[in-house]
Amino acid sequence: MSLREFAPHCNAWPFVEARNVLKRFAATPLAGARGAHDKGYVLFETGYGPSGLPHIGTFGEVARTSMVRHAFSLLSDIPTRLFAFSDDLDGLRKVPDNVPNQDMVARFIGDKATTFGTPLTSIPDPFGCCESFGHHNNGRLRAFLDAFGFEYEFKSSTDCYRSGLFDAMLRRVLEKHREILDIVLPELRDERRRTYCPFLPVRERNGRLQVLEVPAVEYRPQDGTVVFKDDVEGLFEVPVTGGHCKLQWRVDWAMRWAALAVDYEMSGKDLIDSVRLSSRICRAIKGDPPVSFTYELFLDDKGEKISKSKGNGLAVEDWLRYAPPESLALFMYQKPTAAKRLYFDVIPRAVDEYLAHLAAFPKQEPARRLDNPAWHIHRGHPPAEDAHITFGILLNLASVCHSEDKSVLWHYITRLRPEAKPETAPFLDKLVEYAIVYYRDFVRPAKKYRAPSDLERAALEDLIRALEDLADGADAETLQTQVYEVGKRHAFPDLRAWFKALYEILLGQSEGPRMGSFIALYGRRETLDLIARALKGESLA
Asked: Could you tell me if 239 and 113 lie in one domain?
């Protein structure tokens, strides 16, 4: 049987989402069909606010949407497209902390009362290399997405508004403005309700473009214009088309869905109300809201919501300093609707879970492969890579060797796995590099060795005798059994206490690897020497 035959029954969340998208085409045959809205394709979309640089949330949204898109491609032959949409016609409300020439950028900030500020694509680039600040950040977004190999088409709000692509739907918004106001106004505070208008005129003020938030005096659908009034110009009439106006963002979102005929877009939990409101607006202008998916937000090490302004999260570049991008993709794949801590200590587990899924894939039946995260991470073609050794074991090897020299770790690796060499196992070699950096930054500073208690001393002496009775070359399972049996012979409250004692006394940490696997890698004789030194009270740091 082909994988397509299993896809309709797969419970992996990307397939669940893909089937929801396919329901929009319920009357359409699965194969050789045209999409809705006479597009001839299914449109997936992700949004990006280019006031700052791409971040880990951007990666997560594009990665997850790409997974749903790929799952859909196995369910149906309907072509698909993915738009990465930049809201670069938005004004700038404040100067980001991480840009140069802040005084220059500050001149283009809105007053928060009547203006949103200058559109991002009309602000000079503070980095001095691009046409505008918006163009600079759009370029960073595209480079960011390209670096991960995402397949997408970039779309600029500025280009879409000014090219006329949105004109027909903007006129529709104008025609339906009363219905839209009936939807939006009850959601607003009294003060804002009195002056709210779905349209924001884009006008030149003081020698620069400004996105204004001023009250409308009259809507003129027959002319395609809105009459506004403010203290600067008094009454002035503006076409809603051609980039002379942009929409308030919830209306903008709805208009975009309708104009582009977006079929699928996910968003964070913080936008649930906005999705609801924009969906109502989309229907009011005779559009069909996309299938939506709400993902949970990430938490920091203290369980608080990650905020770009607080800087309490983990950046993509931080993760990639310590682990391969596939492990980050796995983290995004896992439980997207559950709040998860996103901090440095989740990285080792994510790496080892990725390695486990990758190793399991070739052995699985076709139906099970579709449930394997590796299939989704690698778009159906996981590489045939054998890491040979877990990331956790590599971290502990670096720890016990107290070495940042890659060759030292490879000395032990090749002794256990003679077929593995840096030139023949490049992925493992990269993992060794990651492990060394992670050990240096996080493991070594937190190490805290302790002396054994009388009970632990007796058990360690027993372990020495047990290991001495084994031959060189004993495999990991044999070694693990011996460690296990020693623990059972002594009066520990449970075996967990025994293993915890081994980690704290020998490795200087409260958690660690399977001891059998560690001993097999580090060496039986080397482990015997390590235990002996601990019993003598020598420093292992």
From this structure: yes
